[in-house]
Amino acid sequence: MDLLTIKDYVKLRKEELKIKIASLKRAPKLAIVQVNDDVASNSYVKGKLKDASELGIEAILIKLDEKTSQDELLAKVEQLNEDISIDGIIVQLPLPKHISEQEVKKIIDPKKDVDGFHPLSSFEACTPKGIVSYLTYLGFEFSGKNAVIIGRSNIVGRPLAKMLLDRSMNVTVLHSKTKLEDRDRFLKHAQLIVVATGQPYLLKKDVPLLKDAILVDVGISRVEGHLVGDIEPRDDVLLVTPVPGGVGLLTRLSLMENVMEAYENGISC
Ligand code: NAD
After folding, report:
1. What homologous superfamily does CATH list for 25-111?
2. DSSP label at 262?
3. Cα separation of 259 and 223, whole Å?
């Protein structure tokens, strides 16, 4: 059997999810809170609303003025925490400068924190979850292999490192303070490389890598009107995930799976 591309894999999983959701007593419900009006956030929110509607998830968008105070936002989130008709809550990032991201993340009920941002969240962070699920589908054998993750953010690098460690990989996490010669020494032995920095083509195509390496490109930047990843395209390794049409689709799928899971957790307790 030929293995599916990310695009086709996500399509298949969404079809399965849609069937599962159609069999539920009621539609799972997601609340999206947005406190900005920037172009990128509007487009991410639009994508989430579209996914939800395709799958039979009820999604509501609560768009607040950029001048909303931190207290007002926290009060809104608390109200959604209390609302038993809501299964999942996401607060779209970035937030205006006068609002602390940490305070907002802390207040979302962990049982409804479908982005998986809070350490106590009942859910896996969406991007790492999506990456691991696709690698698992590909039949990638995690145990004993070397993984290098470039980027140590709380939403990608760190949670992914834990998930790969839990699967018995040897995990190295690199970051902006890593010296290039050290980076390339680690990369040379890695069977799995995940780059999540937001630095266009940070990993150049001439860096020597294993022939059977899998490269996962998380980064997404706009350069001269085009979306580009953190990895310069190359064809001398086993796989490089595309940008766009790669990890972003997996992340969106994971979010919808988490909403479904939140619904299931809610009815079983
Ligand atoms: P972040 O800004 O929080 O963290 C960036 C990380 O990259 C930091 O840990 C930093 O140390 C590291 N870094 C920066 N420059 C570096 C360099 N020159 N060498 C090595 N490391 C370097 O970013 P984030 O939120 O994790 O997002 C990273 C990128 O991934 C962004 O482009 C973001 O848009 C994208 N992203 C995509 C998805 C998706 O679903 N496709 C999801 C999350 C993030």
Report:
1. Leucine Dehydrogenase, chain A, domain 1 (3.40.50.10860)
2. H
3. 33
Structure tokens at 133: 């699920």
Would the CB of 218 count as within 6 Å of ligand 1? yes
Residue with CA closest to ligand 1 atom 18: 176
Q: Where in the chain is the domain with CATH 3.40.50.10860?
A: 25-111
Q: What is the mean pLDDT of residues 219-248?
A: 96
pLDDT of residue 25: 94
Q: Give the tens place of pLDDT for each residue, 16-55.
A: 999 999 999 999 999 999 998 888 899 999 999 999 999 9
- Residue 99's identity, in one-letter code, is I
Structure tokens at 165: 């460690």
Asked whether the predicted pLDDT for residue 266 surpasses 90, the reply is no
For the domain made up of 126-249, give the CATH fold: Rossmann fold (3.40.50)
Q: Where are the alpha helices (DSSP H) in the chain?
A: 6-22, 39-55, 70-82, 101-107, 126-138, 157-166, 180-187, 247-268
Q: Rounded CA gap, 152 and 159, in Å?
A: 9
Tell me which of 153, 221, 232 to substitute to probe ligand 1's pocket, judged by most ligand atoms within 8 Å of the beta carbon.
153
> Could you give the residue range(s) of every CATH 3.40.50.720 domain in the chain?
126-249
Q: Please state the pTM of the whole predicted model.
A: 0.96
